[in-house]
């Protein structure tokens, strides 16, 4: 018997009991939709998270926070030389945070600054660009964050002019002038003994403004200085990172934070592993990605499993429908067998019928899932917005249905329907011709 | 064409422990040549249908040999036997055994579909065969919309459509009145004359028995010597 004719046969048979078939397909569609929608949440959140992570500037970086060694001397120039010798390292970014918040003054404006020392040369080599101006070349040249103007306060101004009722800075109170080429006077304090402090003013020049931070919500109000300037500060305070504690005789310099810039994600992971093996405390978002992926794979598998249970429940309906179909059609099956239909043909026809129900259910279920997924992605942010007054970041997806998920759902649906249809199909092949012809069944 | 050797059959009745066996056929042997019409007569319960069912493969054979068209069918698997049946044997039943949800056309087309014949070839063969049994114009009638005689013609057309070598008929006129019975017998004679199909017809009707070239008589599961008409 030709496959085309089998299909025709099955369609004719299905037409004979539309209501029953419809209900069974409905149950299967619901099971499939349940599976897909459930798993789509894991796919959606995973996708969003990964996208978020990949957008980060730090995605190609390995951060090093220290080193496992006996003396606890931290990261020294010797380590930097080693990092620079490694393959796939494009730039070694170093940074030290000033251990005091010095007073800075531009014209009539003043602020307490957050100061970080970096290796400008490495930044430039690593491809980090400035919003305006240029990178410092001399020790007394600095760059400031793009939001630095917001920390500056006019000297002697009235509090009401600076802060509004909610104690937020008024935009009108920000420093309005240009920053580049301005002289910035930074006052560094030092402790001579526990009760005596002294200070010294360092006249500096702002030569550039940094780019906006990667994330919209981040503010960059820092002042970035060179290691040469940090050295001048340390020479004055006689402490590591210009900290405000009594001078230390055996002061040694070490880098606080190191970020190795690599060219691609795979190298980052390998680099991270190498450094950890070498005894450094290395961290990279990329290595974290592996963990995240594993976690989500487990979550997806778990949700698919729960969804499969729904399809299995629906398959009880298929089993019932097919068993009834076989019983109803027993006389016809008997006639067909008498004429010369082989048991294989009979079995194929019934298996085809149950897989039709399965495929139809899976198709409808998939279509419905896409609809639900779309509604969730559009509706949930709206609900969260109005009820909880929370805004969901742009591009955030709660639910996503990749083709692989549809494929998995189809396969599961097909397997489950074939299994549940196989017993009724077998029953059909075992129908005794003579009993059927006598209408005894 | 049909050769039966030492065929015996017994039915088992009752549950385990209290089983009784009823011997229905006792070493039956006979031979039917190609193109013969042979009728099988005998009292009700003498085992005629059982013999036909064994030849058809509807009952599993117990002892003896059955050779159809030169092929020993006793060793065939269920699948092989069904394929053999489809290509070699046509059936006519007392109560027609048509599929009620299919039209006359679809019932006759069924063996062609099972045999994997293409749709265009099917169309021609089905219409030709329906015309051969005089059912032009009734193609789209369902069995319930046809008279007994017409239904039996549909069933003859279905038996005929794959050009069988043998047609087995169990009381083919049992449900027909005497006039339609005559028509059917004429049709059988015509098919035998033109297509040389071999017929084995069970009947207890004298008029039917009369059309056979030969008659076999069954009594208590045994054949009494056949008579030649
Ligand atoms: N399935 C069966 N189980 C038990 N006994 C049966 C069965 N089929 C037929 N018989 C018995 O076998 C005998 C022969 O039956 P059958 O071949 O139908 O006779 P006929 O067709 O000549 O009237 C009868 O006594 C009948 O009761
Ligand atoms: Mg009988």
From TrEMBL, chain A:
The chain crosses the membrane at residues 21-45, 294-319, 356-380, 400-420. It is found in: Cell membrane. Pfam families: FtsX (PF02687), MacB_PCD (PF12704). GO terms for molecular function: transmembrane transporter activity. Keywords: Cell membrane, Membrane, Transmembrane, Transmembrane helix. GO terms for cellular component: plasma membrane. It comes from the Bacteria. Residues 305-432 form the ABC3 transporter permease C-terminal domain. Residues 22-237 form the MacB-like periplasmic core domain. It is a multi-pass membrane protein. The keyword Membrane applies. InterPro entries: ABC3_permease_C (IPR003838), MacB_PCD (IPR025857), Macrolide_Exporter_MacB (IPR050250). PANTHER family: ABC TRANSPORTER PERMEASE YTRF, MEMBRANE COMPONENT OF TRANSPORTER-RELATED. Belongs to the ABC-4 integral membrane protein family. This is Acetoin utilization transport system permease protein. The lineage of its organism: Bacteria, Bacillati, Bacillota, Bacilli, Bacillales.
Automatic annotation (TrEMBL), chain B:
The keyword Membrane does not apply. GO terms for molecular function: ATP binding; ATP hydrolysis activity; transmembrane transporter activity. CDD domains: ABC_MJ0796_LolCDE_FtsE (cd03255). The keyword Transport applies. It comes from Streptohalobacillus salinus. This is Acetoin utilization transport system ATP-binding protein. InterPro entries: AAA+_ATPase (IPR003593), ABC_transporter-like_ATP-bd (IPR003439), ABC_transporter-like_CS (IPR017871), ABC_transpr_LolD-like (IPR015854), MacB-like_ATP-bd (IPR017911), P-loop_NTPase (IPR027417). Keywords: ATP-binding, Nucleotide-binding, Transport. PANTHER family: ABC TRANSPORTER ATP-BINDING PROTEIN YTRE, IMPORT ATP-BINDING PROTEIN. SMART domains: AAA. One of its GO terms (cellular component) is membrane protein complex. Residues 2-228 form the ABC transporter domain. PROSITE patterns: ABC_TRANSPORTER_1 (PS00211), ABC_TRANSPORTER_2 (PS50893). Belongs to the ABC transporter superfamily.
């Amino acid at each position: 018997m030709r496959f085309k004719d089998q299909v025709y046969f099955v369609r004719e048979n299905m037409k004979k009991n539309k209501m029953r078939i419809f209900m069974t397909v409905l149950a299967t569609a619901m099971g499939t939709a349940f599976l897909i929608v459930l798993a789509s949440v894991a796919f959606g959140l995973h996708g969003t998270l990964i996208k978020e992570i990949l957008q980060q500037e730090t995605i190609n970086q390995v951060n090093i926070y220290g080193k496992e060694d006996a003396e606890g001397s931290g990261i020294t120039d010797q380590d930097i030389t080693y990092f620079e010798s490694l393959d796939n390292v494009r730039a070694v970014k170093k940074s030290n945070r000033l251990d005091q918040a010095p007073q800075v003054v531009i014209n009539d404006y003043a602020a307490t600054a957050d100061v970080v020392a970096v290796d400008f040369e490495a930044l430039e080599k690593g491809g980090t660009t400035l919003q305006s101006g240029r990178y410092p070349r001399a020790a007394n040249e600095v760059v400031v964050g793009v939001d630095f103007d917001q920390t500056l306060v006019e000297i002697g101004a009235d509090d009401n002019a600076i802060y509004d009722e909610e104690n937020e800075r008024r935009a009108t109170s920000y420093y309005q002038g240009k920053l580049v080429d301005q002289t910035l006077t930074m006052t560094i304090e030092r402790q001579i003994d526990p009760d005596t402090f002294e200070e010294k003013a360092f006249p500096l020049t702002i030569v550039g403004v940094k780019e906006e931070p990667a994330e919209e919500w981040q503010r960059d109000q820092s002042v970035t200085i060179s290691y040469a300037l940090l050295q001048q500060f340390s020479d004055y305070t006689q402490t590591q990172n210009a900290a405000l504690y009594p001078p230390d005789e055996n002061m040694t310099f070490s880098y606080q934070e190191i970020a190795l810039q690599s060219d691609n994600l795979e190298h980052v992971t390998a680099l991270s592993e190498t450094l950890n093996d070498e005894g450094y405390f290395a961290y990279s978002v990329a290595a974290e990605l592996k963990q995240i992926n594993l976690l989500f794979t487990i979550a997806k598998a778990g949700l698919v499993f729960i969804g499969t249970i729904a399809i299995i429940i629906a398959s009880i309906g298929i089993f019932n429908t097919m068993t009834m179909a076989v019983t109803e059609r027993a006389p016809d099956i008997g006639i067909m067998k008498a004429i010369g239909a082989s048991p294989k043909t009979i079995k194929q026809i019934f298996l085809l019928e149950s897989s039709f129900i399965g495929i139809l259910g899976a198709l409808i279920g998939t279509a419905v899932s896409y609809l639900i997924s779309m509604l969730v992605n559009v509706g949930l942010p709206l609900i969260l917005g109005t009820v909880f007054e929370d805004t969901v970041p742009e591009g955030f997806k709660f639910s996503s249905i990749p083709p692989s998920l549809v494929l998995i759902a189809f396969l599961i649906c097909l397997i489950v329907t074939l299994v549940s249809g196989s017993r009724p199909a077998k029953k059909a092949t075992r129908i005794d011709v003579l009993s059927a012809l006598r209408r005894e069944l | 064409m049909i050769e039966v050797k030492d065929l015996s059959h017994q039915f088992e009745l009752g549950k385990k422990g209290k089983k009784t066996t009823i011997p229905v056929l006792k070493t039956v042997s006979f031979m039917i040549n190609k193109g013969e019409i042979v009728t099988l007569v005998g009292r009700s319960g003498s085992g005629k249908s059982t013999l036909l069912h064994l030849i058809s493969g509807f009952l599993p054979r117990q002892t003896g040999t059955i050779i159809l068209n030169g092929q020993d069918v006793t060793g065939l698997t269920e699948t092989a036997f069904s394929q053999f049946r489809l290509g070699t044997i046509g059936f006519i039943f007392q109560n027609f055994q048509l599929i009620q949800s299919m039209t006359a056309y679809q019932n006759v087309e069924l063996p062609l579909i099972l045999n994997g014949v293409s749709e265009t070839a099917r169309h021609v063969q089905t219409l030709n065969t329906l015309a051969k049994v005089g059912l032009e114009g009734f193609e789209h009638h369902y069995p319930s919309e046809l008279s007994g005689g017409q239904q039996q013609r549909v069933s003859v057309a279905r038996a005929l459509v794959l050009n069988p070598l043998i047609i087995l008929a169990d009381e083919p006129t049992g449900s027909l009145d005497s006039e339609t019975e005559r028509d059917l017998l004429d049709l059988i004679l015509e098919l035998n004359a033109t297509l040389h199909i071999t017929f084995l017809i069970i009947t207890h009707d004298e008029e039917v028995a009369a059309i056979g070239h030969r008659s076999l008589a069954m009594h208590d599961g045994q054949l009494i010597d056949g008579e030649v008409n």
